[in-house]
Design brief:
Elements (H helix, E strand, L loop, with lengths): L1 E5 L4 H12 L3 E6 L7 H7 L9 E5 L5 H10 L4 E4 L6 H6 L1 H21 L4 E7 L23 H20 L2 E7 L2 E2 L8 H10 L3 E5 L5 E2 L2 E2 H14 L3 E6 L5 E2 H12 L4 E5 L14 H7 L7 H15 L2
Parallel strand pairs: 1-2, 1-4, 2-3, 4-5, 5-6, 6-11, 7-10, 8-13
Antiparallel strand pairs: 9-12
Helix pairs in contact: 1-8, 3-5, 5-6, 7-9, 7-11, 9-11
């Protein structure tokens, strides 16, 4: 298959690209290498892929209609895997217009091109943040998600709705994947696990927002890649899938695992909870298991050790 991966030089995208290349697929990566974090990190992410004859890197923006038009005109894509987005809950509160433009308008540009050039499968990266402070858990795809508590979450919900509209109007198949706190090698440096490992290893204070009792459903990168791959294979109609570990981990326990793997104690600075942060995420993955054969297999204890081993070798 020929697959367009947007945001393909990022954390999830670079892992997915390597996985698909190893399967024999032809990959076109579209990434704008923005400055949300050091673009050189992304360039290191794709060093191996660039050596593969079935890989093409296009540096461009999903909001640039000419770039996207030229890309679709020059290629016959079987699938679009749309991972590109402005990420992060807290930055979205500071700059909601940017998140609306990139996440929503960029998605519409890609959906439009997919329809016009007859790309029949569209995989959309959504987020567990759409659930907000859902009172029912584990979170199910059928739960009401009309109450996002950050602009980032609102844009992801909007993208799911837009994708459904294009499915209904033009009969393209869409799978929206709600990722639950993905971690592992190459994780973005601003994300908690990477940030904590970096600060603890250097003997600096780590900021802990709240009392450490918040819980997240952390999902190791290989489980997410498996879920995306299965979604590509099985994409038909319109579906939403939770991709998580389906277990909750308390923040204090997470920190203790990082401490253990690093062999260093954390110096914790307790701070108030931040706007936009949710108290708990917890995925019901029964639909993904039943329909995709998704079966997450990396527990947090193993995953943290694998991440820290990578971090110590790469000290970014």
């Amino acid at each position: 298959m020929k697959i367009l991966v947007t945001g393909g030089a990022g954390f999830i995208g670079s892992h997915l690209t390597e996985f698909l290349l190893n399967k024999g697929d032809t990959i076109v990566c579209l990434d704008n290498f923005n400055d949300y974090y050091d673009p050189e990190i992304k360039r290191r992410n794709i060093e191996n892929s660039l050596k593969n004859k079935n890989y093409t890197l296009v540096e461009g923006d999903i909001c640039d209609e000419k770039v996207v038009e030229d890309l679709f005109r020059a290629n016959k894509f079987d699938v679009v895997v749309h991972l590109a987005a402005r990420a992060g809950v807290r930055p979205s509160i500071e700059n909601p217009k940017l998140y609306q433009k990139v996440n929503i308008e960029g998605t519409v540009v890609l959906l439009d091109a997919s329809v016009r050039y007859n790309t029949r499968k569209f995989i959309l990266a959504s987020s567990s943040s759409v659930y907000g402070n859902n009172k029912k858990y584990p979170f199910s795809e059928s739960d009401n998600v009309d109450f996002p508590i950050s602009p980032y979450a609102a844009t992801k919900k909007a993208c799911e709705l837009l994708a459904y509209t294009y499915h209904d109007l033009y009969s393209i198949s869409v799978s929206c994947l709600r990722f639950f706190t993905v971690y592992g090698p190459r994780q973005r440096p601003d994300m908690a696990i990477h940030k904590f490992a970096n600060l603890i290893s250097r003997g600096k204070k780590i900021p802990l927002f709240g009392d450490g009792s918040t819980k997240r459903d952390y999902t190791y990168i290989t489980d997410i890649i498996d879920g995306i791959f299965r979604s590509i294979e099985m994409c038909s109609g319109y579906n939403i899938y939770n991709l998580g570990e389906s277990k909750t981990v308390e923040l204090k326990y997470l920190i203790s695992l990082i401490e253990k793997s690093l062999g260093k104690k954390a110096d914790i600075e307790y701070l108030p909870m931040q706007p936009g942060d949710v108290n708990l995420t917890y995925a019901d993955v029964s639909k993904a298991k039943k329909e995709l054969g998704y079966n997450p297999s990396v527990p947090i204890e193993k995953g943290i050790k694998l991440f820290v081993d990578w971090y110590l070798k790469n000290q970014l």
